[in-house]
Amino acid sequence: MTSSNVGESTTSHLFINKMLQKLKSNWFLLGVVGVIACAKLWPWIGAKGGPLKPEVTVKYVSVMAIFLCSGVSMRTEDLTQAMANVRLHIFVQSYTLILVPCLISSLVESLQLLSHINPLFLRGLLVVGCMPPPVSSAVILTKAVGGNDAAAVFNSALGSFLGIIVTPLLLLYMIGTHASVPFFSIVTSLSITVILPLLLGQVIRGFIIDWIEEKKPPFGTISSSILLLIIFSTFSDTFKGSSIQMDMTSLCSVIMIVVSCQLTFLCLSYLLSTQYDTLYEVSYNFLTLSA
After folding, report:
1. Is there a contact between 223 and 91 (Cβ–Cβ < 8 Å)?
2. Are 112 and 119 in contact (CB under 8 A)?
């Protein structure tokens, strides 16, 4: 074998190794694409009433498992410190439940006048803009990018509780839609799936803290894998129960709008948070637009 062949072989191996490392580091994004494709091909598996039983495994077990992992992996001091950061909480909740809905409402009104996008898409965009941050994905994605996961846990839970009151009021004001809200049922569900597993995780951590420090279990990877299951179930329901006739122009337009909104809100939250000496991802609710 000549020296040139050896050099080409080495270069090829380096390139392959580099690509494998890239794929490994972005496994979650690849997993999201994979589970969405699977949901499209076999929606009956993860849809409600299917063999996966998402009414239990996703709605309760998966979310509880994510917050149990958060409770076990999170230092109590970090959680206590995050809870005491009132300035951060005001910023996050105001941004998510006041600023975002107002900006989205203005955007939707403009699009209704200037475009021919399907009104159902625009209505859905407005509804999602009024939603509180998604509990599970907010925590997992914040941790994945090295953010303050303790603050994410607290603000996700707080936003969900505030959303019980704020979201119906926003929908009534912006859309004119009103409905009865099972307040105690929602509070009970959030307490069982979020608060209790988190507290239980903290208790368990106290007994196995030495083992955690030594072994460093991949709690982040476990939580991300569980999130993929939730995404699969969500898209399975969407693909199985979708009865809306979607024209490609409206669909592509909405995708572009969602991506543009996500980037805009990310940049805006970064600028505002750094201005006030805080750094926190507050545009979680737009992650749910993909569903």
Report:
1. no
2. yes
